[in-house]
Structure formats: structure tokens, C-alpha cells
Specification:
Blueprint (H helix, E strand, L loop, with lengths): L12 E5 L3 H4 L1 H12 L3 E5 L12 E3 L6 H14 L5 H7 E2 L1 H10 L2 H8 L3 H13 L3 E5 L1 H4 L4 H15 L9 E3 L6 H6 L6 E2 L3 E2 L2 H11 L3 H6 L17 H6 L17 E5 L9 H9 L3 E6 L15 E5 L8 E4 L5 E4 L12 H12 L2 H9 L9 H10 L10 H9 L58 E2 L2 E2 L25 H5 L5 H6 L11 H9 L9 E2 L21 H6 L6 E4 L2 E3 L2 H4 L10 E6 L9 H4 L2 H6 L4 E4 L1 H6 L7 E5 L5 E8 L7 E5 L4 E3 L2 E2 L14 E2 L21 E7 L1
Parallel strand pairs: 1-2, 1-5, 2-3, 4-16, 5-6, 9-10, 10-11, 19-23, 20-22, 24-26
Antiparallel strand pairs: 7-8, 12-13, 14-15, 17-18, 19-27, 21-22, 21-27, 24-25
Subcellular location: Cell envelope
Family: Belongs to the prokaryotic molybdopterin-containing oxidoreductase family.
Keywords: 4Fe-4S, Iron, Iron-sulfur, Metal-binding, Oxidoreductase
């Protein structure tokens, strides 16, 4: 999220692509409603007429997976009418021209054909959005869960750049994050392709982290098969089972240093929430060891036929432990323990410490927490460690004391600006990152040059060199943060260029202590010097509309792997298959173009959320009150569609997927979905393709609701960059059970 929820109150227009905050972020949605009360327009683009859409001024029922044509359609109209922000593009963007050329192809007629949205409505939406300045662009899972999810999430910001809505109060990209602390979890390196703070896996970063963790780099190397494997991404959560199945029985091949996975340790994930549940079940069945650390009976243990070597460790909940969490807008909060861990529960860190002890690396694991002292204080010393090491996103100004003070005084911050008063005056709530130094107030809105750096201002990051093909990557004149000593762009700050760029002279001591660049400067001197001068350590560059290191340099439309429009799949085919993506063979074109699946599977299928359930749903289905609202798994469809198949409301139906899997669910009628579409919530499990597995629950632990999992029939398909499953673009066939 570049801005924050309260900032949405300052906008003039909100365009929502594939998010349903009225249901999934109901507290955050209050700010949308307040914005509307202030006169802002709300536009919703969603294949379903959701509760959010019900509040919209304009709503477009888009065909799943066609947001790129829709956005190019908007850009086409914007450029045709000269509604773009020419100065912004001139000084702060690299290569909008390529986008303009692609947008020309997407005439309103073509967009209507591909997306199903009438060209008059497209025009009306574009005009409303472009004429109400600034507008904010909001998205969530409706954009990401596609084979082209990454391209979707690049084109949204490009719309903002074209209109000059980036880096502005009331503008920006407000991406609504999911779980409590999911922002913090990804910041901390819970992804398989990076170290904490999004540091890439290369020798330089491993050496930096080894040094900062106080462990020998060679020891770190010794933990891997060899050095080469230190630089490779791991498996993703979405496809761990492929690591177990090891290419056998027609499963995707793996590239895992010649071995397959034998054991799975799960901490805080449902497992039943990932796509391809029939494969997940096969993966679970073939494990030698399954360890689940969870406050609830995680249903991964229930849906497997495995009879032994399954252990459920009772993890404590958030109420039984403390530490920092990071909100969707990058603000930290201190979470205080409410009660001691109940019964034999243990907080996650104690379980991890125990694991490290038994695996023989507890000393190395905790050394940096000690940081030279005799003992460490949990979790305060963990926060200090993070602040010492993570420069890239600017966690360097966080201290437990500062964060606690913010949490303790949270009533003294303004919700629209995040600015504090009284004891917290001059600081933004939760020190939203980047918070460069202990004197820095945090950054409420990213890339905002209307503020000085010491008040949260900054340009775009210089991360891709100084020039590309002879074109400067640095920002143009007049585009530096307010009061900057430099008028235009500047490079990211290194030991080598700091004196020239900042116009300072270092002492010998400073030079000796300083790391090679702002990202690996353990001494913190680079950040400190930059703050004194009002310079952003990461430089001031152009946002790239064309990213030359991506498969698609500019975002391109590619049809979902399983599309109801085979004609369009031939015109806008998916990617070539990839031999190893996060260690697993990942198929695209070979599946998409194998045959026209839509003849047999003519119905669009999308999945999503219910207000009373969360994620895999075990937590909520263990509550009789929440379960009562949706006591069983169902499928939303229009009565017109149901009639074609002789289905009446409340009938049980089979839903079949192109993979040959099926689920038996209850039909529920609604007019919220299009006539050729069904919608499935993904919060249920316990029944696998008609087989009730709930007898596997230990006595007295069966939840109050269970059913088939939508993810048994979600279709194969993974984003080419992140490997997120294509759970929002698939097809199916239905029949009365
Ligand atoms: N009650 C509740 N709240 C939650 C959660 C929960 O499980 N329950 N989960 C949390 C988590 S982890 C997350 S990530 C967020 C997710 O929050 P959202 O992203 O809002 O959740 P979804 O309902 O999965 O999907 C949003 C919308 O995308 C639409 N959509 C599907 N395909 C497309 C498409 O191709 N294009 C467009 N434009 N729209 C499409 C769907 O119809 C749906 O209305 O919610 C969080 N909040
Ligand atoms: N078809 C389809 N599938 C989807 C999606 C979709 O839209 N459609 N959305 C996807 C998205 S965005 C997400 S985020 C996932 C969500 O899916 P999951 O991450 O599986 O969702 P949760 O049910 O929140 O799982 C959290 C687990 O952690 C446990 N837990 C809670 N607190 C703690 C704790 O303090 N410590 C430990 N160790 N465990 C704890 C809970 O009991 C629960 O079992 O689903 C994904 N799957
Ligand atoms: Mo999520």
C-alpha cells in the first residue's frame, strides 16, 4: 500500500479492481464510505456484484482475468483525450511511450469484446476517474490470483503514473493486504526468494546477513548442499506437494538438488487453502512426517489417509504472546500479551527455538539477539535486530520503545494524516516504513515529493542502474523531495558516491565504518548523512513503465490457462512452459492450447471470501455462531443457469474441473454473478470429492461446519513471477447430483 486507509478520505475517486472491502476489510471500508460522504466517486470492477459494488457510483461486471485489456482501454481513452499528466510522465516515468503504443491497440470495441464491458461504460468510468483528481487505485486478490497476476499489479500503478496520481495524498495504489501482519511476514522474508527486507539471494547479501547475524559465512554455506543452492529460490507454499510427489505419476517435475521432500512443518497456514487439493492430499499421504503447529486442529491432518507420524503442536495465539505486527499500510504496532499461554501451548518463537536446539544451530540462530550481551529480551531484541539489519525498506528507525509509545498513545493520532499530537507530535502512527533513522517520523505516503525527506517525503527508488539504452533512469529536474539540495534525480547512495552526491567530506573513521552501499551499511552512517542533507538513501529515480528484466517488458494480456474464450487464447496465448519455477516445472501454453476445454467446461468459476469466515476457515468453523451463518459449503449461481441443468435452489450439485476432480455442493441462487459464472467460497474442507474425512478429527474437535473444498476444483495455473495459483480464473461443468 503506497498510502494508507485514512488517506483514502482525501481522494476524489476510488477505483477498485478485484477487491471486496465491504466484506473482507469492513473496518477499512469505513474510510471509503467517509470519502464518499465527502463527495468522492466509487467505481468497482468485479465479475460479481458485491457488497462493495452495491455502494459504487459505477460498476463494471468484467470477465475474470481481463483486467489488462480493461486498463489498457482506460489508457487508450486517457491518451486520446490528452487527460494524462504530461509533466509527471516527463520527469518521473521511464518509457510511458511503450504503454501508449500498446494502449492504442485496445480500442473500446476490442475491450468490449474481450472483457464483456460495454464501451460506453468503459468511457464513463475512465472519464469519471480521470476528471476527479486525485484518484486512488485499490486492488486485492481479484488482480493477483491469475497467471498474469504480476502484470495486473504492474498495470494498475501505470494507470496511476499516467494520470499523475502516484506519490500524492488521496492518490497512490492502496492494495488491501490479507491477514493480520501479512505485511510484516513478507517484510521478514517469509517468501522463498529473498532474505528479510526483500534482499535478493546473492553472495553479497548472504555475507551481509552472516556478518550482521554474527555467524561465519562459511558456516552458512555449509548449511546448503553447495553454494549454488544458496542463490536459488525455494519451493513456494502453493506447490510444496510437488516436492513430495517428485514428478511421479505424471506430476510436474522438480529441480531440488536430486532429492524430494520427506517432511512438512506447518506454522500458521491452513494447507487446505491452496489450489489443487487432490494433489495436496496426495502430497500429505506420501509424507514421511507431518508436523503442524497451530492453535486449532489444522485440517491438513484430517484430509490425509496417512495413519502415523502426524503431530499437532499446540501453538499459542496472538493473545498469549507479544511483539510487533505490521499493518497493510506499513505501520508497526506493538502487540501486548493478554494472557499467559494456556495449558501446554507455546508461542511460535519457543517452538522455533526448540527446533533450532534439536537441529543443533540454536547458538547461531539467536546470536544476534544477544548482540554482545549475556542474555536477550524477547521480543524487544528481535525488533532491535530487525532495525539494525533491514535497510532496504527502512526499518532502521524502529525501536521497541518508539513503537510501544505509538501503540500506547494511539488515540492521539489523526486518522486522515496519521500525524501525532502531544507526546507523539511530529511522528506518523506506527512509523510507517521507510523510517530511516531514530529521528525520522516514518512515511505515510510513498513517493510523495511534496514533503521534505525528514517529514516522510521521497522520490522513486533507483534500483536499476543510472541509464538503460542511453536513457537516464534518474528523475528529471524539479522532481526531488521538498527542500532537497538537489533539484532533480540522484543515484542511490554508496560509499563511493556519498561525498560527491551529498557534497560532504567523510572522516577516516566514518569511511572505515561504512558499508559499501546504503543497503549494506551496518554502521547506519549513510542514512544519517542523507537525513542531515534531506536526501533519500535509495536515490531519486524514474518509475519504470517498461521493466526490461521481466518476461513481459510491458504488461500484456494473456488469457487464463482455462478460458471460456478459446478463440482469444489463440490470439493472446499464455507463456511458454517453464522448466523450473521455484523448483517446480510449471506449465502454461502446453495446457492452455492443448484443446478447447470450454466445450466441456462452459462455465466461469471464481472463488473468494465470506464475511463470517477467514482463510482455510477452521478457526471460524470452530465457532457455532459463525458457522450458523453458512452451515455448509455452497455454490452461487443464477437461477437462469441452474434452470438449464434442471437444478433447483438447495439441490446438491456436482462441479467438475478440467483436471478431472469434482466436488458435491449445495446450489444457492443469487443475481450477483453473471449468467455464465459460478462463485465458490474457499473456507470449507473435510469432504474430499464426496468422501467425508471428518471421522479423522480427534474426539470432540470436529468443527461446527465442514464440506467440500473449492480448491479441489480450482484449475491448474500459476503466476509466472510469484507462483500464486490462478484461483480467480477457471472453468467448470455442473450437473445435478
Ligand atoms: N471475512 C474475511 N475477510 C478477509 C479474509 C477472509 O478470508 N475472510 N481474508 C483476508 C485475506 S488473507 C485477504 S488476501 C483479503 C482478500 O480480500 P479480497 O481480495 O477482497 O477477497 P476475495 O473475495 O478473494 O476477492 C475479491 C474480489 O475479486 C473478484 N474477482 C475475481 N476475479 C476477478 C478478476 O479477474 N478481475 C477483477 N477485477 N475481480 C475479480 C471477486 O469476485 C471478489 O469479489 O481479505 C482479508 N480479509
Ligand atoms: N480458492 C482460493 N484459495 C485461496 C484464496 C482464494 O481467494 N481462493 N486466497 C488465498 C489467500 S490470499 C490466502 S492468504 C490463503 C489463506 O489461507 P490460510 O493461511 O490457510 O488461512 P488461515 O485459515 O487464516 O490459516 C491460518 C492458520 O494458522 C493458525 N493460527 C492462527 N494463529 C496462529 C498463531 O499465532 N500461530 C500459529 N502457529 N498458527 C496460528 C490458524 O488456526 C489456521 O489454521 O488462502 C489462499 N487460498
Ligand atoms: Mo491473503
Amino acid at each position: 500500500m503506497t498510502n494508507h486507509l485514512g488517506d483514502i478520505q482525501k481522494t476524489k475517486a476510488i477505483i477498485v479492481f478485484g477487491a471486496n472491502p465491504a466484506v473482507n476489510h469492513p473496518v477499512g471500508f469505513r474510510h471509503f464510505i467517509k470519502a464518499k460522504e465527502n463527495g468522492a466517486k466509487l467505481i468497482v470492477i468485479d465479475p460479481r456484484f458485491t457488497q462493495t459494488a452495491a455502494r459504487a457510483d459505477l460498476y463494471a461486471q468484467i470477465r475474470p482475468g481481463t483486467d489488462i485489456p480493461f486498463m489498457y482501454g482506460m489508457l487508450n481513452i486517457i491518451f486520446e483525450n490528452g487527460w494524462e499528466d504530461k509533466e509527471f510522465i516527463e520527469t518521473r516515468v521511464y518509457d510511458m511511450q511503450s504503454i501508449k503504443e500498446e494502449a492504442k491497440k485496445w480500442t473500446p470495441e476490442l475491450v468490449e469484446n474481450v472483457t464483456g464491458v460495454k464501451k460506453e461504460l468503459l468511457y464513463e468510468i475512465t472519464q469519471m476517474y480521470a476528471k476527479n483528481n486525485p484518484g486512488t487505485l485499490v486492488w486485492a486478490m481479484g488482480l493477483t490470483q491469475h497467471t498474469i497476476g504480476t502484470s495486473n499489479t504492474r498495470l494498475g500503478p501505470i494507470v496511476q503514473l499516467a494520470l499523475g496520481y502516484a506519490g500524492k495524498e488521496g492518490g497512490g495504489c492502496n492494495i488491501l493486504r490479507g491477514h493480520d501482519n501479512v505485511q510484516g511476514a513478507s517484510d521478514m522474508g517469509c517468501l522463498s526468494e529473498n532474505l528479510p527486507g526483500y534482499y535478493g539471494l546473492n553472495e553479497g547479501t548472504w555475507k551481509y546477513f552472516s556478518k550482521m547475524w554474527g555467524v561465519d559465512y562459511e558456516w552458512m554455506v555449509s548449511r546448503f548442499v553447495n553454494k549454488e543452492w544458496m542463490h536459488k529460490s525455494g519451493f513456494t507454499l502453493a506447490r510444496w506437494y510437488a516436492g513430495v510427489l517428485d514428478g511421479k505419476n505424471g506430476n510436474d517435475k522438480i529441480d531440488n538438488a536430486g532429492t524430494s521432500l520427506k517432511a512438512l512443518v506447518v506454522m500458521g497456514n491452513g494447507i487446505t487453502s491452496i489450489a489443487q487439493q487432490a494433489k495436496v492430499q496426495e502430497g500429505l499421504d506420501n509424507l514421511e512426517l507431518l508436523v503442524i503447529s497451530d492453535p486449532f486442529v489444522n485440517e491438513a491432518a484430517i484430509i490425509t489417509n496417512k495413519k502415523d507420524n502426524i503431530f499437532i503442536l499446540p501453538a499459542a495465539t496472538q493473545y498469549e504472546t507479544s511483539g510487533t505486527v505490521v499493518a497493510t499500510n506499513r505501520s508497526a504496532q506493538w502487540r501486548y500479551q493478554v494472557v499467559d499461554p494456556l495449558h501446554e501451548c507455546k508461542p511460535d518463537q519457543e517452538i522455533l527455538f526448540g527446533l533450532a536446539k534439536r537441529m543443533g544451530f540454536y547458538d547461531e540462530y539467536t546470536r544476534s539477539l544477544y548482540n554482545g550481551k549475556d542474555s536477550f529480551e524477547w521480543p524487544e531484541d528481535a525488533t532491535r535486530e530487525i532495525a539494525r539489519i533491514v535497510k532496504t525498506i527502512g526499518l532502521t528507525g524502529w525501536t521497541p520503545e518508539r513503537i510501544k509509545k505509538h501503540t500506547d498513545n494511539w488515540d492521539k493520532f489523526d486518522e486522515k494524516t496519521l500525524m501525532g499530537t502531544g507526546p507523539v507530535e511530529g511522528e506518523y502512527y506506527g512509523l510507517p516504513w521507510p523510517c530511516w533513522t531514530e529521528d525520522h517520523p516514518g512515511s505515510p505516503n510513498l513517493y510523495d515529493i511534496s514533503k521534505p525527506v525528514m517529514q516522510g517525503g521521497m522520490g522513486f527508488r533507483n534500483n536499476f542502474g543510472l541509464e538503460h539504452n542511453g536513457v537516464s533512469q534518474l528523475a528529471g529536474d524539479g522532481s526531488a523531495p521538498l527542500n532537497s539540495p538537489i533539484n532533480g534525480g540522484y543515484p542511490q547512495i554508496t560509499k563511493e558516491n556519498i561525498e560527491t552526491v551529498l557534497g560532504i567530506t567523510l572522516t577516516d573513521e566514518e569511511r572505515d565504518a561504512m558499508g559499501p552501499s546504503w543497503t549494506t551499511d551496518g554502521s547506519g552512517i549513510i542514512a544519517k548523512k542523507c537525513m542531515e542533507k534531506g536526501i533519500t538513501p535509495y536515490g531519486n529515480a524514474r518509475a519504470r513503465a517498461r521493466a526490461w528484466n521481466f518476461k513481459d517488458q510491458i504488461p500484456l494480456h494473456r488469457e487464463p490457462l482455462h478460458t471460456p474464450r478459446y478463440d482469444l487464447a489463440q490470439e493472446y496465448p499464455s507463456f511458454d512452459d517453464v522448466e523450473s519455477l521455484f523448483r517446480v516445472e510449471t506449465k502454461y501454453k502446453s495446457i492452455q492450447l492443448a484443446r478447447d476445454y470450454s466445450k466441456e467446461f462452459p462455465i466461469n468459476m471464481i472463488t473468494g471470501r465470506l464475511v463470517n469466515m477467514n482463510g482455510a476457515g477452521m478457526e471460524n468453523r470452530a465457532s457455532p455462531y459463525l458457522s450458523r451463518l453458512t452451515p455448509e459449503m455452497f455454490c452461487d449461481m443464477r437461477p437462469e443457469l441452474a434452470k438449464k441443468y434442471g437444478i433447483k435452489e438447495g439441490d446438491m450439485i456436482w462441479i467438475h474441473s478440467p483436471e478431472g476432480t469434482k466436488i458435491k455442493v449445495k446450489a444457492r441462487f443469487t443475481y450477483a454473478v453473471a449468467e455464465d459464472m459460478v462463485f465458490l467460497p474457499f473456507h470449507f474442507t473435510g469432504i474430499m470429492q464426496g468422501v467425508d474425512m471428518t471421522g479423522n478429527f480427534p474426539k470432540g474437535t470436529r468443527p461446527y461446519a465442514w464440506g467440500e473444498s473449492a480448491n479441489t476444483v480450482t484449475n491448474y495455473g500459476y503466476d509466472i513471477f510469484t507462483q500464486i495459483p490462478e484461483t480467480k480464473g477457471g472453468i467448470c461443468r455442473i450437473e445435478k447430483a
